[in-house]
Amino acid sequence: MHQQDPLYEAALSMARDLIRIESTNPGALEEGVADHLKRYFAGRLPEWGKLTVSTADGGRPVLMAELPGRSERTLALICHMDTVPVANGWTMDPFCAEIRDGKLYGLGSADMKSGLSSACTAFTCVARKLDSEGRRPEHTIRFLASMDEEGDMKGVEEMIRLGWVSPDTLVLDTEPTGGMIQTAHKGRYWFRYTMHGKAAHASRPEDGADAIAGMAAAITSIRRRILALRPDPFLGPSTVAFGMIKGGIHPYQVPDTCTVSVDVRLVPPYTKDDLVRILEAGCDAARKELGRESLTCTIECTGERPPVPHHEDSELLGLMRDAVRSATGAEPVVGPFPGYTDTAVIAGMLGNRNCMSYGPGKLAQAHRPDEYAALADIRRCCHVYRELLGRWAEEETDLCSEI
């Protein structure tokens, strides 16, 4: 029999409740999860604790639970409430919250309702222990629930505007990291890239300039040039993906336009300007390959998030290493996060050097059919978060028996 673990059991129960609440983006959005969190915190915060709810982007909610400390130094756990839409290929109900073979299944189980639940229960465990001892934490502790992380990340931008995080806040998100502490991010740049040619009858292609053929040549050139950029020692190589393409209006006509989406994950020291030069060089390559000087391109940047470097001297990194060692008995592994997160937005916009990720599940299981998080991961993360917050509050870090 397993030893009773109230902290883990509370986190697992909450994770199942949240998975059953659809919060797809686009789709149902986050209101149902936010309502659940408001009810959850209403009965679990001390009288001196604070719960703040705000809205942005047409009424979509963001939430902050706070344990004010004797100092204004702040550590925040940030979690997003939304999930991606349901992908094709599920073999079970995406909102089933089923437990099978040591795994919790359901949409958002890995990304990131297990992490959100683990953070909530660790936060309220610390809150109740402090309250029972009649004292406040040495430093301020916050739990933040954001919206639109799976979209344009408007939730975390609203939190920055509200002052819920600052350049000096220590911020940990609970994205799925497969047991690693992940501290750095490649830049994320999105472009709408359009090739302009000249229409003609398909039987006389020499009278026109084929925008689709030109785009094929440009894509080959762009991909080759981006993959040739120098890798970063910590983040690895830059990457590129062409997610959507559209061109032409009739099968018997030389197309005069073709548009493709370009997603580049860029490492330092390269910048947006370097990418624009690469995209322009792609058009030059198309003109040369097709022998059509009339081919031109337009480049529209539709998303811009800068890279976030690794900071070995980060205070939060030191605290996280200690918390992982204490809670698990294992030496933590540190690496980069492959995607872009709420903490990356905070780091990029504020120059914050104490932003990183640690959460249950693996990113490889996110955004796919039959998503799951291992129960052992949820258990581990509950206690790492509890240890981290306990150290920040400067209290004893014995297991909490009441949630």
Pick out its properties.
403 residues, Aminopeptidase, 2 domains, 5-stranded antiparallel beta sheet, 34% helix
Provide a quick synopsis of the model.
This protein has 403 residues and is α+β, with helices and mostly antiparallel strands. The protein contains nine helices and 18 strands.
Can you characterise this structure?
There is one protein chain. The protein is α+β, with helices and mostly antiparallel strands. It folds into two domains: 6-185 and 308-393, Zn peptidases (Aminopeptidase); 187-305, Alpha-Beta Plaits (2-Layer Sandwich), CATH 3.30.70. The protein has helices at residues 6-19, 31-42, 109-132, 154-162, 211-227, 272-290, 315-328, 342-350, 375-393, and strands at 50-56, 60-67, 71-80, 99-100, 103-105, 139-146, 170-173, 181-185, 187-196, 200-201, 239-241, 245-247, 253-254, 257-266, 296-305, 334-337, 355-357, 372-374. The strands form five sheets. The protein has a six-stranded mixed sheet with strand order 1-2-6-3-7-17, with helices on both faces. Strands 9, 11, 12, 14 and 15 form a five-stranded antiparallel sheet that branches. Strand 1 and strand 2 form a beta hairpin. Helix 1 packs across helix 3 (109-132) and helix 1 (6-19) crosses helix 9 (375-393). The longest helix is centred in the first third of the chain and has 24 residues, at 109-132. Residues 395-399 have low confidence and may be disordered.
Proper CATH architecture of the largest domain = 3-Layer(aba) Sandwich
- Percent of residues in helices: 25-40%
Tell me how many strands there are. Answer: 18
Question: Average pLDDT across residues?
Answer: 95
Helix and strand content put the structural class at alpha+beta
